[in-house]
Amino acid sequence: MPGSFHGRLFPQNTIHLVHSSYSLHWLSQVPKGLVAESDLPLNKGNIYIAKTSPPSVHEAYLTQFQKDFTNFLSMRSQEIVDCGSLVLTFICKNDEEDGCDFWELLGITMNDMVIEGLIAEDKLAKFNLPLYAPSIKEIKQIIGKGGSFKLLHLETFKLKRDSNMAEKEEATLFDEKSRAAYIAGNMRAVQEPILVEHFGEEIMDELFERYGKKAIEYMKNYGKGIINNVVISLSKTN
Ligand SMILES: C[S@@+](CC[C@H](N)C(=O)[O-])C[C@H]1O[C@@H](n2cnc3c(N)ncnc32)[C@H](O)[C@@H]1O
C-alpha cells in the first residue's frame, strides 16, 4: 500500500480484512523524551532500551508505541466494515523485563566502536531506533482502551535469528563465519538506511562485521538470539 499505516490508507467502511506482517514494531518517530530539556541524552551509549537505560527511556518508548498503536487501530476502524477483521504479526517482548537483545547488541557493538574512537561519542548518544517491542500486557491494554476492536485470538512464537538459514544453504548452517554473515546481513538490510543517515556510510562494513561476530558469540555463550513474536486477530466491534 502506498502511504504510511500510521495514517489513513483506505476509504471509509470498505475493507473486510486487514493483515499487517512484521511492521507494527516500527514507530512513527523516535520517541521525543529521549533527549531531556537540558539537551542531555538519556540513553547514552545505547540505541534502544538496554539494561543500562534509565526507566524514563522505557517510558518514552512505551508512550510512543501507545500513541502509534492506538492511532493505527483508530485509522483501521474507520476503514474496516462492521465485524471486519484485523490480523497482525509483529515483534513483542517475552515478558515485562525482556528487552530485544539484538537491537541492544547492535548498540553494544557501536559503543565498542566509540571506545576505539571509530564513532563519535556524542553521535551515538543522540541516536535511538524508532522501534518498539511491546509486552503482551501492553498490547492488550491498548486494544481494550481503544474499544474499536475485540481481541479474538493471540498467539506468540519464537524465532532464532538465523532460523531462515535452514531453508538456504544447509551445508553452511554450522559454519560460524557463514552464520555471522547471515545474521549481520539480515540486520544490515533492515537498519542500514537509518544508520547511514546519522553516522554516514564509512562505518557500515566494520560495524556489521563486528555485529555478526558478536551475535554468534552472544548466542553461543548465553543461549540467546531469540526473537519473540505475536500474532493477534481482532474483530471490529459494532
Ligand atoms: C520486515 S518488513 C516486512 C515486509 C512484509 N510485510 C513481510 O511480512 O514480509 C517491514 C516493512 O514495514 C514497512 N513499514 C514500516 N513502517 C511503515 C509505515 N509507517 N507504513 C507502511 N509501511 C511501513 C517497511 O517499509 C517494510 O517494508
Which key terms come to mind for this protein?
4 strands; 4-stranded mixed beta sheet; alpha+beta; 238 residues; globular; binds S-adenosylmethionine; 6 helices; single chain; Non-ribosomal Peptide Synthetase Peptidyl Carrier Protein, Chain A
Descriptive report:
Strands 1-2-4-3 form a 4-stranded mixed β-sheet. The chain has helices spanning 55-79, 101-115, 121-125, 136-146, 176-199, 204-222; strands spanning 15-21, 80-91, 149-160, 226-236. It has 238 residues and is an alpha+beta fold. The protein has one domain: Non-ribosomal Peptide Synthetase Peptidyl Carrier Protein, Chain A, CATH 1.10.1200.270. The protein starts with 14 loop residues before the first strand and ends with a strand. The longest helix has 25 residues, at 55-79. Strand 1 (15-21), helix 1 and strand 2 (80-91) form a beta-alpha-beta unit. The structure holds S-adenosylmethionine. S-adenosylmethionine binds next to loops.
Question: What's the short version?
Answer:
This protein is of the alpha+beta class. It has 6 helices and 4 strands; from the N terminus they run βαβαααβααβ.
